[in-house]
Amino acid sequence: MPSTTPPPEHLRKEVDSVLIGETEIAARVRELAADIERDFADRDLLVVALLTGTVPFLADLIRHITLPMRLDFIGVSSYGNNTAPGELVFTKELRLEAENRDVLLVDDILDTGKTLRAVTDKLNALKPRSLKTCVLLEKKSRRAEKIMGDYVGFEVPDAFVVGYGLDYAECYRNLPFIGILKPEVHA
Ligand code: PRP
């Protein structure tokens, strides 16, 4: 059920409500980190994060993981310049070696699943020893690919969610909570 907590005063014209607050996010991120630590115990992790929306979540998550890890990024966007909506464009390739590594792929939201499908296919082609996925949010209702996250923070309704990395037109990524954007803002 969407929360009815109002957003801070300065955002009330654009953001309808706070769906997941800072405290709730922080607690769930710690739980995800604990699950990852338990499952990857004694492993040397390669964390691969997808740009750009994953940044706040990634920064909080990895600070609660004490396993040895390396960190790399893949740039992928579903809306490139001069491309149709839904078409994926890779803007940065992986730099570190993934072969025989235990890879944890981190993203902010699993929606249709097209991004995670394309990136997991790309990573599996590099022959990692294992590959797991971790997403802060998932929308189950719009799934077009048969793919699930191994570690999932929260399931969210099919509303326009922004904040804590998620954007509308590249804005709102800096909000410390997940909010629902007013329909008139994104209409
Ligand atoms: C968003 C989000 C996920 C993807 C999820 O990325 O960060 O990577 O869409 O959608 P899907 O499951 O339908 O593929 P976006 O292309 O908007 O890039 P961004 O992270 O830079 O905002």
Task: Explain what the structure shows.
With 187 residues, the chain is an alpha/beta fold. The protein has one domain (22-156): 3-Layer(aba) Sandwich (Rossmann fold). The chain has four helices and nine strands, in the order E-H-E-H-E-E-E-H-E-E-E-E-H. The protein has helices at 22-39, 55-62, 114-124, 183-186, and strands at residues 15-20, 45-51, 69-77, 89-92, 102-110, 130-138, 151-155, 161-162, 178-181. A six-stranded mixed β-sheet has the order 4-3-2-5-6-7. A three-stranded antiparallel β-sheet has the order 1-9-8. Strand 2, helix 2 and strand 3 form a beta-alpha-beta unit. Helix 1 packs across helix 2 (55-62). The model has no long low-confidence stretch (mean pLDDT 94). It binds 1-O-pyrophosphono-5-O-phosphono-alpha-D-ribofuranose (PRP). The site of 1-O-pyrophosphono-5-O-phosphono-alpha-D-ribofuranose has 17 residues, from strand 2, strand 5 and helix 3.
